[in-house]
Write a structure and sequence with these properties.
Tumour Suppressor Smad4; 38 helices; 7 domains; single chain; seven-stranded mixed β-sheet; 36% helix; 14% strand
């Protein structure tokens, strides 16, 4: 204690091995409660006065809890002003407490000058505490709230934030007043030499003042042994190690009403004191003795070494091995009384030979899931919620939850193990298929039970097929399962233009036999309903042959988009410049989109003449496509059938994307993949039914009098197309030749000249001229016979069976047995997991669902246009050569391709391509950087440019946006320069459209399914149309921006209304060049897309 006498400002930490001081107050059993222990610690510290070596310091708060001691500012909070605010977010960092349990401004400590009791003495100060928090401040075990009066502080008082001082989450301090000496009262301060100051600072830091992490509460804890020589000391195996006696915590005369009440009380008391009580032994009792329970610490007992066999030899260990058992002697006994279900508790040994747990997170017992939490985990797992998100949900529900990811994984594994119940993957799959009434067919190897092809269809999907059989789209996708089987997906289109899944089929190979089998199963399910009018697919010869074989009367169209990709892959290498290639592909599109055979001949002649110097490219498109398949993809022939606008497989590709996003990994089994696909289909059906209900509601923008007989009777999508045709009718009139009648042939809807006839006669469009496809707004199945008899089919099977040889009879019996036996009894098995057989072996399993790039994508991603695109794909380790002068122009990935569907359908023919950017919260600024030539990584420069634009012309934008708050909000959004900003710092459209256009002096088009606008510069004079830079930004999936590249002369959306209101007079004239293109946009897109910056809502009573 000598050092304390020399420098009483620093508290002397009690030694853990010192005897308990006389200031402590043991209870009758010789044990100390947490309250008594903290009182003794506070008394020891406050007995060491804080000398006023610094005249500004009049008091201090010294940490006495674990959390308080770990403040990086040190264990002492020095009080120097007449008032101090203490909290998590106070201005002075010395008074900050970094704990989520502490309020931003938790309390105030201040002093007041008052008259002394002795009139001859000078006036003195009194110190007070006032709570300003949301969860209270504890003052000597009493909780103060904001409504409590101020509390007067005395030397040695305990102050605890957020929790009682003995709680593990408490941030507790003891208040110490400064003791003044005569020399200080006289104002003569002690002057120290420089070396004395340095040594003093080192000494203070060594005991915790100013140290990054102060001493723990355990530094104050003394060995508290029982004063009685009982079994507690005899059973301890720790020898001279310190022990903690918690007998007083568990000593109670309470009678528990049930066994469960006793268990809960014992566990709660143990957890509150930092350890966990478990059942060591349970005796149900008999006629001679009563039931009893022996409790112990979870660290009681010793490890039984299972690493050795009976012969004493060591077993092979597969993973790390350890134990937390240390022979803790703690023991309790619960015994049932004779009356009712009453129980009492007796302390056998209250001593622990180990320190209490500092942190509960990661503790095996503390992290156990309750019955309610386990049930929640099972429900969320069935809903395909990821384990990480399950853990986040559990911790949000309970702030004290100590569960870890390993616990979640273990619980999920147990749930799946119980669900599997020793069944194979195929047994699980077939059981679920039967449970949800799917239609399932499969084929297996002749000499084994391994499934080769598997087909299934949802019952609601079949109802949709019977209701909307006109158009089917078929396409295979890959990397969806661990067996590397291609997945054939067949989709259809509803009257509300929504895609629905008809059926799925895992195929062993993409050969004609496999396709014919799958389509044959589908054909058998359509016997009682109309067959499809149109099937759309890629040019895959085996699939084409199967379609022609199974559906010989159906029109088969080829996907135009895939054809263009093949043309790019084969022909782009022949062109030396991008301009030449652009002209070639544009003229090719003119040939493909020819509306009549005469126009086709004319466009083809122009095409051949203009590119006669490129014979290889002409030879490829002519011999490979036009000569053989022009009637399957050229508009002059495809527009003669009702394909409802489906001339590509984009719907199937979009369905693939959603499916792979749902699967998440390419290493799923049949059963796990089916489960995720099933949940996706269920959501799909809900959206389709919702679209039917929406069509039954009369929309205000679809109420022209000419359509009064159609309101609520046809789909809203059909009404949208009729509105466009009605606008065309105003300048087409009754001229059939000018009309073209394309919509009548391809959609089954009245075209412009028909509507003009009705308008001229003053009649409304009758319902009967609308094709039945658009009038179907329900899933009512086709009426069937009330009785179904199978006797004739059974007789036919018996007749065939009797005429077969023994081998065939066994196969027939096997098939019949599969139909009537339980799925649990099937002997079918899944295939073996396939692995790559070429290249270097890689220990890391590829779980990606993204398919390998095609030849056209290698060209689109900046490959040398003169290189052989059929060459092998380079290894990932080979760095691609960067050519600074080459313009990477057509970047098109699968995701970018599918983004085309995220824009208005009638605008898509004008798309050249869509380029994706990184989705990191800066995507909007990345898009502008790419479009302006900065590159995607120029997003930071874009943020700075827009921020400078906003600051430089703040008055103009304040008028445009209406309030200063909106300007401040944009400044806040633009001022974040982090790589992955949060939602509040994402680009905001259309608000930032004016900033972008004016900052870079460009014409900006903003496109999405919900809102389309054009922005013009607000301050600059118009420049010639040929010199203007037009850029387009697209908004997809309600959360992401992409770069959009359109064909020259494309339609553009209406100009933002605020430009007309607030542009400077010198900018007048920017809009005149776009009137025709704006009108074209309004004609083809219609009124289902918002073309204003603000939307006015019409509110009526009762709505």
């Amino acid at each position: 204690m000598a050092e304390a006498d020399e420098n009483p400002q620093t508290p002397v930490i009690p030694n853990p091995r010192d005897e308990v001081t006389s200031s402590s107050h043991p209870d009758d059993n010789g044990a100390f409660s947490p309250e008594d222990f903290l009182d003794s610690v506070a008394a020891r510290i406050s007995s060491q006065p804080l000398d006023n070596s610094d005249p500004a310091v009049w008091g201090a708060l010294t940490a006495i809890s674990d959390i308080a001691c770990k403040r990086h500012q040190g264990i002492n909070i020095l009080l120097t002003s007449d008032e101090h605010c203490i909290g998590r977010l106070v201005d002075d960092m010395h008074f900050q407490i970094e704990s989520n349990a502490v309020s931003a401004n938790h309390c105030r400590i201040y002093r007041k000058k008052g008259a002394a009791e002795d009139a001859e003495s000078p006036s003195t100060f009194s110190t007070f505490l006032k709570d300003t928090s949301t969860n209270g401040t504890y003052f000597n075990w009493e909780k103060l709230t904001t409504t409590s009066p101020e509390a007067k502080l005395h030397h040695g008082d305990i102050i605890s934030f957020a929790a009682p001082p003995q709680h593990e989450l408490a941030v507790a301090f003891v208040f110490r007043e400064v003791s003044t000496s005569d020399s200080l009262n006289d104002g003569a301060l002690v002057k120290r030499k420089a070396d004395e100051i340095v040594s003093e600072r080192k000494r203070l830091k060594s005991v915790g003042i100013g140290a990054p992490e102060g001493p723990s509460l355990y530094d104050f804890q003394s060995p508290q042994r029982s004063n009685t020589d009982d079994a507690s000391t005899q059973c301890s195996k720790v020898g001279s190690e310190p022990v903690m006696d918690y007998s007083s915590e568990f000593t109670t005369h309470k009678i528990f009403k049930s066994r469960e009440a006793l268990l809960q009380w014992v566990r709660d008391v143990g957890r509150r004191n930092g350890f966990f009580v478990v059942i060591n032994k349970s005796d149900a009792g008999d006629s001679c003795k009563r039931p009893r329970i022996t409790f112990g610490c979870e660290r009681s007992g010793y490890l039984r070494d299972r690493r050795r066999n009976k012969e004493g030899n060591s077993k092979k260990q597969l993973k790390m091995f350890g134990t937390k058992k240390c022979g803790c002697p703690f023991a309790l006994k619960g015994q049932k009384l004779d009356t009712d279900d009453d129980w009492v508790l007796q302390v056998l040994c209250g001593v622990h030979n180990h320190p209490i747990a500092e942190h509960l997170v990661g503790h095996s017992y503390a992290g156990r899931l309750s019955e309610e939490e386990t049930s929640m985990l099972v429900d969320m797992s069935k809903s395909l919620v990821r384990p990480k998100e399950i853990l986040v949900t559990l911790k949000q529900r309970d702030a004290l939850n100590a569960t870890t990811m390993k616990t979640i994984y273990d619980a999920h594994h147990r749930y799946k193990f119980v669900e599997k119940a020793r069944r194979s993957q195929m047994q699980l799959l077939l059981d679920q298929i039967v449970q949800y009434k799917y239609i399932e067919r499969h084929r297996s190897c002749e000499n084994s039970e391994i499934v080769t092809d598997l087909f299934w269809a949802h019952p609601v999907g079949l109802e949709l097929l019977r209701a909307f059989p006109r158009v089917l789209i078929m396409d295979c996708t890959y990397k969806t399962n661990r067996y590397r089987l291609p997945l054939l997906e067949i989709v259809g289109v509803t009257s509300t233009e929504m895609t629905f899944s008809v059926a799925f089929a895992y195929l062993q190979q993409e050969q004609e036999d496999n396709y014919t089998w799958a389509l044959g199963v589908l054909r058998s399910l359509m016997d009682e309903c109309a067959l499809p009018d149109v099937i759309v697919s890629e040019r895959e010869m085996d699939l084409m042959n199967a379609i022609d074989s199974v559906f010989p009367t159906t029109r088969h169209l080829l996907c135009r988009w895939h054809i263009n990709k093949d043309v790019m892959a084969k022909c782009k290498k022949s062109f030396e410049t991008e301009d030449k290639w652009d002209k070639f592909i544009n003229q090719w599109n003119m040939v493909v989109l020819s509306s009549t055979e005469g126009e086709y001949i004319q466009q083809l002649a122009t095409f051949n003449k203009e590119f006669s110097t490129y014979p290889e490219a002409l030879e490829y498109v002519t011999s490979s496509w036009l000569d053989t398949y022009k009637n399957r993809f050229v508009a002059a022939w495809t527009d003669t059938c009702m394909h409802c606008g489906n001339a590509t497989t984009n719907r199937a590709e979009g369905s693939h994307t959603k499916l792979k996003r749902q699967l998440g990994s390419s290493q799923g089994s049949f059963e796990s993949s089916w489960t995720k696909i099933h949940s996706l289909i269920e959501l799909q059906h809900a959206d389709i039914k919702s679209s039917f209900e929406k069509s039954l509601t009369i929309q205000h923008n679809l109420k022209p009098i000419e359509f009064k007989d159609l309101w609520g009777r046809i789909s809203a999508s059909a009404l949208d197309m009729l509105l466009v045709e009605m606008k065309r009718a105003s300048f087409v009139g009754c001229d059939v030749f000018a009309c073209g009648c394309v919509i009548r042939r391809t959609y089954g809807l009245p075209c412009a000249h028909e509507i003009a006839d009705y308008m001229r006669d003053g009649r409304s469009v009758p319902l009967y001229v609308i094709h039945a496809h658009w009038r179907k707004l329900d899933l009512v199945p086709t009426p069937k016979s009330s009785t179904i008899d199978c006797q004739s089919e059974l007789d036919l099977i018996a007749q065939h069976f009797n005429g077969c040889d023994s081998t065939t009879k066994l196969q027939i019996l096997k098939k019949l047995r599969e139909l009537v036996t339980s799925a649990d009894c099937t002997s079918l098995t899944q295939q073996k997991v396939k692995s790559k057989t070429q290249g270097q072996k890689n220990s890391k399993i590829d779980t990606s669902t993204h398919r390998d790039p095609s030849a056209s994508e290698l060209v689109a991603h900046g490959q040398d246009s003169h290189a052989d695109v059929t060459a092998a794909i380079p290894e990932a380790s080979v760095k691609p050569t960067w050519r600074p002068k080459e313009k990477v122009y057509r970047t098109r990935t699968l995701k970018s391709i599918l983004y085309v569907d995220a824009f208005p359908a009638r605008l898509r023919p004008y798309f050249r391509y869509v380029k994706d950017v990184a989705a990191d919260g800066n995507c909007g600024f990345r898009v502008i950087g790419g479009l302006m030539g900065f590159g995607e990584e120029g997003w930071l420069q874009v943020r700075k440019d827009l921020l400078s634009e906003l600051h430089s012309h703040e008055d103009l934008y304040r008028q445009l946006y209406g309030t200063q708050d909106r300007v401040d909000g944009l400044i806040h959004t633009l001022s974040n320069f982090e790589v992955c900003p949060g939602y509040d710092w994402w680009m905001i459209m259309p608000d930032m459209g004016h900033l972008i256009s004016s900052c870079y002096n460009v014409v900006l088009c903003h496109l999405s399914l919900k809102q389309c606008l054009t922005f013009l510069p607000l301050r600059s004079e118009p420049i010639p149309a040929s010199s203007r830079k037009e850029i387009t930004i697209g908004f997809v999936n309600d959360n992401h921006f992409v770069e959009v590249f359109l064909l020259p002369g494309h339609p553009i959306p209406p100009i933002a209304t605020n430009w007309h209101r607030y542009h400077i007079p010198c900018a007048e004239g920017w809009d005149t060049a776009y009137n025709h293109r704006i009108q074209h946009f309004q004609d083809i897109v219609g009124s289902d897309v918002v073309t204003r910056e603000t939307v006015e809502l019409e509110l009526k009573n009762g709505n």
